Amino acid sequence: MADLAIVRSSVFQPFICPTCKCDIRNETMHGWVRDRNFGPETEWKTRILPCPTCSEHATARRKAAMVDRLFGQSHIPLRMRNWNFGSTPGDVDQTAIAACANFSNQQGSELGLYVYGEFGCGKTGLAISIIQAAMQRGEDAVFIRSLDLMDRLRSAIARGSEEGDDLLSLLKTVYWFALDDLATERPTDFVIEKLQAILEYRRDAGLLTIITSNFNYRELEAHWRSYRTANGEPVEIKAGAMHAGRRVIERIAEYCKAVPMHGRNLRRTAPDEGKIKPIRGGN
Fold it and tell me: With contact defined as beta carbons under 8 Å apart, do 128 and 83 qualify?
C-alpha cells in the first residue's frame, strides 16, 4: 500500500457555516454569499459567490473522498503518524528545520522546497511535519513516496484503468503535496514525463510542493542522464547535453528553494555509528 496521507473525511459531521450560516449536511455542500464589490466594476449587479469558508472545506472533502476511492484507508505509516516539528530530534539540522517551519506557515514567497541530504538525516520527518501542520489546519495535503507513486501509475496504465488519470489529477490540484525520496525509483522516460507533468502544473497553479531526495541537483542530473526508454533500452547522454531529466531539474530549481540537510544518520543509535562502512570501488 502506498504511503499517502490527506485530510480525512471518513466521518462527516454536519455543521453550520459561521460565514454564510448555511446548514452543511453532506460532504459536497457549501453555501453562497453576496459579492461585496457592488458598484461600477460589477455593472451595479449583485453577484452570488461560493462562500469562501465552507466552499474551501467542500473542495478539501471532495479531494479526500477521491483519495479514499483511489487508496482505501491509506495514511502516513503508523511509525510516522505522530511526527511533527515538536517531535523532531534536537540534533537535526536546525537551519533546515527553520526553513521547513517557515514554509509550513507560508512565511515567505517560496512555493516549493527541495530538501536533500544523506540517508537518515531527517528529510522525510520534516516533509511529514509540514503535511501534518497543513492537515491540522484543515487544508488538503498529500504525502507519497516517489517509488510508490510511479508503481501505482504504471499499474493503472497496465490495467487500462482510469485510476492513473484520477491520481494525476489529484496530485496536480491538491494544495500541499510532499513527494518523498525522489530518484529512488529507476530512471525511465515514463518517470521523467509524469514528474514533469505534475510539477509544471503545480508550479503554474501556485500550489505548495515539498520534494525530498538523497541527491543535490547535480547528482540528480547525473542519475537521470542514464535512463531507460519504455521498451527498456538504455539511453546514455553526455554530460552537459540537454535531456528530459535536465529540463525537470530546471523546473524544480525554478519552483523550489533548495534546502541542504546535514547531520548524523538518525536511523542508527549512537553505539551503531561507524559499524556500517560505505562500499568503495577499487578495494
Answer: yes
Percent of the chain exceeding pLDDT 70 equals: 76
- The CA distance from 4 to 145, in Å, is 8
Containing H/E element for 178? Answer: strand 176-182
Domain count, the chain: 2
- Over residues 13-19, mean pLDDT: 85
The CATH number that applies at residue 119 is 3.40.50.300
Alpha carbon distance 260, 213 (integer Å)? 10
- Parallel, antiparallel, or unpaired for β 226-228 and 234-236? antiparallel
* 8-state DSSP, 2: -
* Model pLDDT for residues 128-160, shown as the tens digit of each residue: 999 989 888 877 788 899 999 899 888 887 887
90 and 61 assigned to the same domain: no
Could you give the angle at the alpha carbon of 182 between the alpha carbons of 177 and 187, nearest 5°?
Answer: 130
Mean pLDDT of the chain: 80
pTM of the predicted model as reported, rounded to 2 decimal places: 0.72
DSSP 121: S
Give the range among 124-138, 171-185, 219-233 with minimum mean pLDDT: 219-233
Residue 272 maps to a domain: no
Q: Are residues 88 and 129 in the same domain?
A: yes
231 and 94 housed in the same domain: yes
